[in-house]
Amino acid sequence: MTMLGVSSAQAQSARPKQVAQQSTEFEEEVVPQRYAANPEVDAFINDVVARDGFNRAELQKIFSRVVFSQTAARLAAPPAVPGQKNWKNYEKRFLDNTRINGGVRFWNQNADTLARAAQQYGVPEEIIVAIIGVETIYGRNMGNFRTIDALTTLAFDYPPARNRSERMALFRNELENLLLYARERAVDPFSIYGSYAGAIGIPQFMPSSIRNYAVDYSGDGKINLTNDVADAIGSVANFLKQHGWQSGQPVVWNIANDRGSQGLAEAGADGQPEPHWKLGDFIKAGMLMNEPRLDVGAKLDTPVLIVDLPTPGEATQYRMGLNNFYVLTRYNRSFFYAMSVYDLADAIKAARAP
Protein backbone atom coordinates (compact mmCIF):
# COMPACT_ATOMS: atom_id res chain seq x y z
CA MET A 1 0.00 0.00 0.00
CA THR A 2 1.13 3.54 -0.61
CA MET A 3 1.34 6.32 1.94
CA LEU A 4 -1.03 9.20 1.31
CA GLY A 5 -0.67 12.71 2.67
CA VAL A 6 -1.44 12.73 6.41
CA SER A 7 -3.43 15.63 7.84
CA SER A 8 -3.13 16.80 11.43
CA ALA A 9 -6.34 14.92 12.26
CA GLN A 10 -4.86 11.75 10.81
CA ALA A 11 -1.48 12.09 12.46
CA GLN A 12 -2.87 10.91 15.79
CA SER A 13 -3.61 7.53 14.17
CA ALA A 14 -0.08 7.02 12.80
CA ARG A 15 2.81 5.57 14.76
CA PRO A 16 5.97 7.20 13.36
CA LYS A 17 8.42 4.37 14.09
CA GLN A 18 6.17 1.94 12.24
CA VAL A 19 5.64 4.29 9.31
CA ALA A 20 9.39 4.28 8.78
CA GLN A 21 9.34 0.50 8.42
CA GLN A 22 6.37 0.05 6.12
CA SER A 23 3.82 2.08 4.21
CA THR A 24 0.08 2.12 4.68
CA GLU A 25 -2.86 4.38 3.97
CA PHE A 26 -4.64 6.81 6.24
CA GLU A 27 -7.77 8.72 5.30
CA GLU A 28 -9.46 11.61 7.01
CA GLU A 29 -12.26 11.06 9.44
CA VAL A 30 -15.44 11.90 7.56
CA VAL A 31 -17.61 12.61 10.63
CA PRO A 32 -16.01 14.32 13.64
CA GLN A 33 -16.69 12.51 16.93
CA ARG A 34 -18.71 9.91 15.05
CA TYR A 35 -18.87 7.65 18.10
CA ALA A 36 -19.64 10.29 20.74
CA ALA A 37 -23.29 10.18 21.88
CA ASN A 38 -23.91 7.45 19.32
CA PRO A 39 -26.94 5.33 20.36
CA GLU A 40 -25.37 2.02 19.32
CA VAL A 41 -22.10 2.88 21.03
CA ASP A 42 -23.97 4.02 24.15
CA ALA A 43 -25.81 0.68 24.24
CA PHE A 44 -22.46 -1.11 23.92
CA ILE A 45 -21.05 1.02 26.75
CA ASN A 46 -24.02 0.13 28.95
CA ASP A 47 -23.45 -3.56 28.25
CA VAL A 48 -19.76 -3.57 29.11
CA VAL A 49 -20.32 -1.39 32.18
CA ALA A 50 -22.83 -3.95 33.46
CA ARG A 51 -20.80 -6.95 32.41
CA ASP A 52 -17.24 -5.83 33.19
CA GLY A 53 -17.55 -3.05 35.75
CA PHE A 54 -16.13 -0.24 33.60
CA ASN A 55 -16.72 3.39 34.49
CA ARG A 56 -19.35 4.73 32.09
CA ALA A 57 -17.93 8.27 31.99
CA GLU A 58 -14.43 6.98 31.20
CA LEU A 59 -15.73 4.86 28.32
CA GLN A 60 -17.74 7.79 26.96
CA LYS A 61 -14.58 9.88 27.04
CA ILE A 62 -12.66 7.15 25.19
CA PHE A 63 -15.25 6.84 22.42
CA SER A 64 -15.41 10.60 22.00
CA ARG A 65 -11.76 10.37 20.89
CA VAL A 66 -12.11 7.35 18.61
CA VAL A 67 -11.61 8.08 14.91
CA PHE A 68 -13.66 6.45 12.16
CA SER A 69 -11.24 4.61 9.85
CA GLN A 70 -12.48 4.82 6.31
CA THR A 71 -9.52 2.70 5.24
CA ALA A 72 -10.42 -0.14 7.63
CA ALA A 73 -14.00 -0.09 6.41
CA ARG A 74 -12.87 -0.14 2.78
CA LEU A 75 -10.41 -2.98 3.30
CA ALA A 76 -13.02 -5.05 5.16
CA ALA A 77 -15.59 -4.68 2.37
CA PRO A 78 -16.21 -7.79 0.28
CA PRO A 79 -15.26 -7.43 -3.40
CA ALA A 80 -18.03 -6.16 -5.67
CA VAL A 81 -17.43 -9.17 -7.89
CA PRO A 82 -16.26 -12.24 -5.95
CA GLY A 83 -13.07 -13.60 -7.46
CA GLN A 84 -12.31 -17.21 -8.16
CA LYS A 85 -10.20 -19.01 -5.60
CA ASN A 86 -6.71 -19.54 -6.97
CA TRP A 87 -4.46 -21.79 -4.91
CA LYS A 88 -1.33 -21.29 -7.00
CA ASN A 89 -1.56 -17.51 -6.84
CA TYR A 90 -2.31 -17.58 -3.11
CA GLU A 91 0.56 -19.86 -2.17
CA LYS A 92 2.96 -17.91 -4.39
CA ARG A 93 2.48 -14.91 -2.10
CA PHE A 94 3.77 -16.82 0.91
CA LEU A 95 6.09 -19.49 -0.42
CA ASP A 96 8.75 -17.04 -1.58
CA ASN A 97 12.41 -16.42 -0.87
CA THR A 98 11.63 -13.53 1.48
CA ARG A 99 9.70 -15.78 3.83
CA ILE A 100 11.83 -18.90 3.36
CA ASN A 101 15.20 -17.19 3.86
CA GLY A 102 13.74 -14.90 6.52
CA GLY A 103 12.37 -17.97 8.28
CA VAL A 104 15.79 -19.58 8.38
CA ARG A 105 17.27 -16.39 9.88
CA PHE A 106 14.43 -16.06 12.39
CA TRP A 107 14.87 -19.70 13.43
CA ASN A 108 18.64 -19.33 13.81
CA GLN A 109 18.27 -16.14 15.83
CA ASN A 110 15.66 -17.66 18.15
CA ALA A 111 16.68 -21.32 18.12
CA ASP A 112 16.74 -21.78 21.90
CA THR A 113 13.32 -20.22 22.42
CA LEU A 114 11.79 -22.19 19.54
CA ALA A 115 13.27 -25.44 20.85
CA ARG A 116 11.88 -24.71 24.33
CA ALA A 117 8.42 -23.97 22.90
CA ALA A 118 8.49 -27.13 20.78
CA GLN A 119 9.41 -29.19 23.83
CA GLN A 120 6.85 -27.56 26.12
CA TYR A 121 3.87 -27.37 23.76
CA GLY A 122 4.64 -30.14 21.27
CA VAL A 123 4.42 -27.83 18.25
CA PRO A 124 7.33 -28.15 15.77
CA GLU A 125 9.63 -25.14 15.44
CA GLU A 126 8.98 -24.85 11.70
CA ILE A 127 5.21 -24.52 12.22
CA ILE A 128 5.68 -21.68 14.71
CA VAL A 129 8.15 -19.95 12.38
CA ALA A 130 5.89 -20.36 9.35
CA ILE A 131 2.86 -18.86 11.08
CA ILE A 132 4.88 -15.80 12.09
CA GLY A 133 6.28 -15.62 8.56
CA VAL A 134 2.85 -15.74 6.93
CA GLU A 135 1.33 -13.29 9.41
CA THR A 136 3.92 -10.49 9.53
CA ILE A 137 7.11 -11.61 7.73
CA TYR A 138 8.73 -12.13 11.16
CA GLY A 139 7.49 -8.86 12.62
CA ARG A 140 8.14 -6.60 9.63
CA ASN A 141 4.48 -5.86 8.80
CA MET A 142 2.47 -5.61 12.00
CA GLY A 143 0.11 -2.85 10.86
CA ASN A 144 -0.19 0.89 11.50
CA PHE A 145 -3.85 1.13 12.40
CA ARG A 146 -4.75 2.32 15.86
CA THR A 147 -6.55 -0.78 17.08
CA ILE A 148 -9.36 0.94 18.93
CA ASP A 149 -10.19 2.96 15.78
CA ALA A 150 -10.18 -0.12 13.56
CA LEU A 151 -12.27 -2.27 15.89
CA THR A 152 -14.80 0.47 16.64
CA THR A 153 -15.20 1.19 12.93
CA LEU A 154 -15.83 -2.47 12.11
CA ALA A 155 -18.03 -2.97 15.18
CA PHE A 156 -20.41 -0.15 14.29
CA ASP A 157 -19.77 0.77 10.64
CA TYR A 158 -18.98 -2.55 8.98
CA PRO A 159 -19.50 -2.19 5.22
CA PRO A 160 -22.52 -3.79 3.51
CA ALA A 161 -22.11 -7.56 3.38
CA ARG A 162 -24.23 -10.69 3.54
CA ASN A 163 -22.98 -11.47 7.05
CA ARG A 164 -22.73 -7.88 8.27
CA SER A 165 -24.58 -8.39 11.57
CA GLU A 166 -22.47 -11.42 12.48
CA ARG A 167 -19.25 -9.59 11.63
CA MET A 168 -20.24 -6.56 13.71
CA ALA A 169 -21.04 -8.82 16.66
CA LEU A 170 -17.59 -10.42 16.32
CA PHE A 171 -15.84 -7.04 16.25
CA ARG A 172 -17.86 -5.74 19.20
CA ASN A 173 -16.66 -8.75 21.16
CA GLU A 174 -13.07 -7.98 20.14
CA LEU A 175 -13.55 -4.31 21.05
CA GLU A 176 -14.72 -5.33 24.51
CA ASN A 177 -11.69 -7.61 24.83
CA LEU A 178 -9.40 -4.77 23.78
CA LEU A 179 -10.81 -2.58 26.55
CA LEU A 180 -10.40 -5.42 29.05
CA TYR A 181 -6.86 -6.11 27.85
CA ALA A 182 -5.91 -2.44 28.21
CA ARG A 183 -7.37 -2.31 31.71
CA GLU A 184 -5.70 -5.57 32.79
CA ARG A 185 -2.30 -4.46 31.48
CA ALA A 186 -2.74 -0.84 32.63
CA VAL A 187 -2.00 0.50 29.14
CA ASP A 188 -3.62 3.29 27.16
CA PRO A 189 -5.96 1.67 24.59
CA PHE A 190 -4.96 4.39 22.13
CA SER A 191 -1.33 3.21 22.28
CA ILE A 192 -2.10 -0.19 20.72
CA TYR A 193 -1.59 -0.58 16.96
CA GLY A 194 -2.18 -3.43 14.53
CA SER A 195 -3.89 -4.47 11.33
CA TYR A 196 -7.01 -2.90 9.82
CA ALA A 197 -8.98 -5.83 11.29
CA GLY A 198 -7.63 -5.38 14.82
CA ALA A 199 -4.93 -8.08 14.85
CA ILE A 200 -1.96 -7.16 17.03
CA GLY A 201 1.76 -7.80 17.13
CA ILE A 202 4.23 -10.26 15.61
CA PRO A 203 1.74 -13.16 15.55
CA GLN A 204 -1.31 -10.95 14.77
CA PHE A 205 -3.47 -12.04 17.71
CA MET A 206 -6.93 -10.55 18.09
CA PRO A 207 -7.55 -9.05 21.56
CA SER A 208 -9.57 -12.09 22.70
CA SER A 209 -6.70 -14.40 21.71
CA ILE A 210 -4.20 -12.22 23.56
CA ARG A 211 -6.27 -12.48 26.72
CA ASN A 212 -6.88 -16.22 26.36
CA TYR A 213 -3.69 -17.60 24.83
CA ALA A 214 -0.79 -15.12 24.99
CA VAL A 215 1.99 -15.99 27.43
CA ASP A 216 4.95 -14.24 29.02
CA TYR A 217 7.59 -16.48 27.46
CA SER A 218 10.56 -14.22 28.08
CA GLY A 219 9.87 -14.19 31.82
CA ASP A 220 9.98 -10.41 32.22
CA GLY A 221 6.62 -10.30 34.00
CA LYS A 222 4.56 -8.90 31.14
CA ILE A 223 3.16 -9.98 27.78
CA ASN A 224 4.31 -7.96 24.77
CA LEU A 225 3.51 -9.45 21.37
CA THR A 226 4.74 -6.37 19.50
CA ASN A 227 8.32 -6.11 20.73
CA ASP A 228 9.06 -9.39 22.52
CA VAL A 229 9.83 -12.19 20.05
CA ALA A 230 9.92 -14.81 22.82
CA ASP A 231 6.41 -13.89 23.90
CA ALA A 232 5.25 -14.16 20.29
CA ILE A 233 6.83 -17.60 19.87
CA GLY A 234 5.43 -18.98 23.11
CA SER A 235 2.00 -17.51 22.43
CA VAL A 236 1.72 -19.08 18.96
CA ALA A 237 2.71 -22.46 20.38
CA ASN A 238 0.29 -22.13 23.29
CA PHE A 239 -2.56 -21.10 20.96
CA LEU A 240 -2.06 -24.22 18.84
CA LYS A 241 -1.69 -26.48 21.87
CA GLN A 242 -4.83 -25.11 23.50
CA HIS A 243 -6.73 -25.70 20.25
CA GLY A 244 -5.78 -29.36 20.26
CA TRP A 245 -2.42 -29.72 18.53
CA GLN A 246 -1.26 -33.34 18.80
CA SER A 247 2.48 -33.63 19.36
CA GLY A 248 4.33 -35.81 16.87
CA GLN A 249 1.29 -36.32 14.64
CA PRO A 250 1.11 -35.43 10.92
CA VAL A 251 -0.76 -32.47 9.47
CA VAL A 252 -1.70 -33.83 6.05
CA TRP A 253 -1.39 -37.01 4.01
CA ASN A 254 -0.93 -37.09 0.24
CA ILE A 255 -3.52 -38.81 -1.92
CA ALA A 256 -2.50 -40.84 -4.98
CA ASN A 257 -2.96 -39.11 -8.35
CA ASP A 258 -4.91 -41.86 -10.11
CA ARG A 259 -8.33 -40.89 -11.43
CA GLY A 260 -10.27 -43.04 -8.97
CA SER A 261 -8.51 -41.68 -5.88
CA GLN A 262 -8.87 -38.10 -7.10
CA GLY A 263 -12.56 -38.66 -7.82
CA LEU A 264 -13.14 -39.95 -4.30
CA ALA A 265 -11.29 -36.93 -2.92
CA GLU A 266 -13.50 -34.61 -4.95
CA ALA A 267 -16.61 -36.36 -3.62
CA GLY A 268 -15.39 -36.00 -0.04
CA ALA A 269 -14.38 -32.32 -0.30
CA ASP A 270 -17.36 -30.74 1.46
CA GLY A 271 -15.52 -27.73 2.90
CA GLN A 272 -15.91 -28.78 6.53
CA PRO A 273 -12.69 -27.97 8.40
CA GLU A 274 -13.10 -30.46 11.23
CA PRO A 275 -12.10 -34.08 10.56
CA HIS A 276 -15.42 -35.90 10.17
CA TRP A 277 -14.59 -38.82 7.85
CA LYS A 278 -12.45 -41.82 8.71
CA LEU A 279 -9.53 -42.85 6.57
CA GLY A 280 -11.21 -46.23 6.18
CA ASP A 281 -14.23 -44.60 4.50
CA PHE A 282 -12.02 -43.70 1.55
CA ILE A 283 -9.77 -46.77 1.57
CA LYS A 284 -12.77 -49.12 1.46
CA ALA A 285 -14.12 -47.14 -1.51
CA GLY A 286 -10.86 -47.71 -3.35
CA MET A 287 -8.74 -44.63 -2.61
CA LEU A 288 -4.98 -45.08 -2.76
CA MET A 289 -2.55 -43.02 -0.67
CA ASN A 290 0.79 -41.56 -1.72
CA GLU A 291 2.38 -42.05 1.71
CA PRO A 292 5.00 -44.84 1.57
CA ARG A 293 5.57 -44.83 5.34
CA LEU A 294 1.87 -44.87 6.25
CA ASP A 295 0.54 -48.15 7.67
CA VAL A 296 -2.90 -47.71 6.18
CA GLY A 297 -4.37 -50.78 7.85
CA ALA A 298 -3.43 -49.48 11.30
CA LYS A 299 -4.89 -46.03 10.66
CA LEU A 300 -8.33 -46.83 9.23
CA ASP A 301 -10.13 -45.21 12.19
CA THR A 302 -8.14 -41.94 11.95
CA PRO A 303 -10.47 -38.92 11.59
CA VAL A 304 -9.72 -36.99 8.39
CA LEU A 305 -11.06 -34.28 6.09
CA ILE A 306 -10.47 -33.56 2.43
CA VAL A 307 -8.61 -30.31 1.67
CA ASP A 308 -9.49 -28.92 -1.76
CA LEU A 309 -7.10 -26.41 -3.38
CA PRO A 310 -8.65 -25.12 -6.63
CA THR A 311 -6.83 -23.15 -9.33
CA PRO A 312 -8.86 -21.89 -12.33
CA GLY A 313 -8.00 -23.72 -15.51
CA GLU A 314 -6.20 -26.54 -13.72
CA ALA A 315 -7.19 -29.72 -11.93
CA THR A 316 -8.01 -29.08 -8.28
CA GLN A 317 -5.37 -30.35 -5.88
CA TYR A 318 -6.55 -32.49 -2.97
CA ARG A 319 -4.86 -33.47 0.26
CA MET A 320 -6.11 -35.32 3.28
CA GLY A 321 -6.10 -33.20 6.42
CA LEU A 322 -5.81 -34.55 9.95
CA ASN A 323 -6.46 -33.06 13.37
CA ASN A 324 -3.39 -30.82 13.24
CA PHE A 325 -4.54 -29.35 9.92
CA TYR A 326 -7.84 -28.49 11.58
CA VAL A 327 -5.91 -26.81 14.42
CA LEU A 328 -4.12 -24.60 11.87
CA THR A 329 -7.52 -23.46 10.59
CA ARG A 330 -8.32 -22.22 14.10
CA TYR A 331 -5.65 -19.56 13.54
CA ASN A 332 -7.22 -18.62 10.22
CA ARG A 333 -10.26 -20.45 8.90
CA SER A 334 -9.00 -20.70 5.32
CA PHE A 335 -7.80 -24.02 3.88
CA PHE A 336 -5.45 -21.96 1.69
CA TYR A 337 -3.95 -20.34 4.79
CA ALA A 338 -3.42 -23.59 6.69
CA MET A 339 -1.91 -25.32 3.66
CA SER A 340 0.43 -22.37 3.01
CA VAL A 341 1.64 -22.49 6.61
CA TYR A 342 2.34 -26.21 6.26
CA ASP A 343 4.15 -25.87 2.94
CA LEU A 344 6.16 -22.85 4.11
CA ALA A 345 7.14 -24.76 7.25
CA ASP A 346 8.43 -27.62 5.10
CA ALA A 347 10.36 -25.23 2.86
CA ILE A 348 11.98 -23.42 5.81
CA LYS A 349 12.96 -26.69 7.46
CA ALA A 350 14.49 -27.97 4.21
CA ALA A 351 16.37 -24.70 3.61
CA ARG A 352 17.81 -24.79 7.13
CA ALA A 353 18.91 -28.41 6.94
CA PRO A 354 22.73 -28.93 6.78
UniProtKB/TrEMBL annotation:
Residues 1-24 have a biased composition (Polar residues). GO terms for molecular function: peptidoglycan lytic transglycosylase activity. GO terms for biological process: peptidoglycan catabolic process. Pfam families: SLT_2 (PF13406). Residues 38-346 form the Transglycosylase SLT domain. It comes from the Bacteria. Signal peptide: none annotated. The active site is at E135. InterPro entries: Lysozyme-like_dom_sf (IPR023346), Lytic_transglycosylase_MltB (IPR011757), MltB-like (IPR043426), SLT_2 (IPR031304). Residues 1-25 are annotated as: Disordered. This is Lytic murein transglycosylase B.
